[in-house]
Amino acid sequence: MVWYLYNREVGNLTIDINKAKQIGKDFLKSRGYPNMKESYYLETHGVATINYAYTEDGITYYTDLIKVKVALDNGEVVGFEGNGYLMNHAERNLGQPKLTEAEARQKVLRGENIKSSGLALIPTDYGTEILCYEFVGKLSGKDFLVYINANTGVEEQVLMIINSEEGTLTM
Fold first, then answer.
1. 93 assigned to some structural domain
2. Same structural domain, 22 and 82
3. Angle subtended at Cα 29 by Cα 27 and Cα 32, rounded to the nearest 5 degrees
4. C-alpha 131 chain-centroid distance
5. What is the band of 171 on the pLDDT scale with cuts at 50, 70, 90?
6. CB of 66 closer than 8 Å to CB of 76
7. Domain that holds residue 26
């Protein structure tokens, strides 16, 4: 399956976002998508759209993304979009990063505000992918993500995390 959407009226909300995330994860696992980790979500009109990325050996593969929509009235899965996963998921031989996490962390401006970090495979605008260290931090009261190339030390991407009543997204 690549995509489906069931538009229906959503009744009184009885499911919170944490329960919806678990419903989505269980749905994916039951359909042969193991090792999926939720990342960001958006809640609109009583439906949570949750992004899940494949994880393996401590690496988060943002290139292998699946979106699941969960109705917050009864937990029914009402949408699925698996194009990112289906087009990109394959055996990869990424090799060991040339930089250590500590070396990459030194490349992050204001690195003292880092809350968490790990390896991630991110997509590029050119249809390729790059192994990076993902650093989650806070600067001037705002949450951010910085991606440092794990082999060259180049800052590949900086994203701001937007937390709102509707969900958590990146920009």
1. no
2. yes
3. 115
4. 15
5. low
6. no
7. 3-88
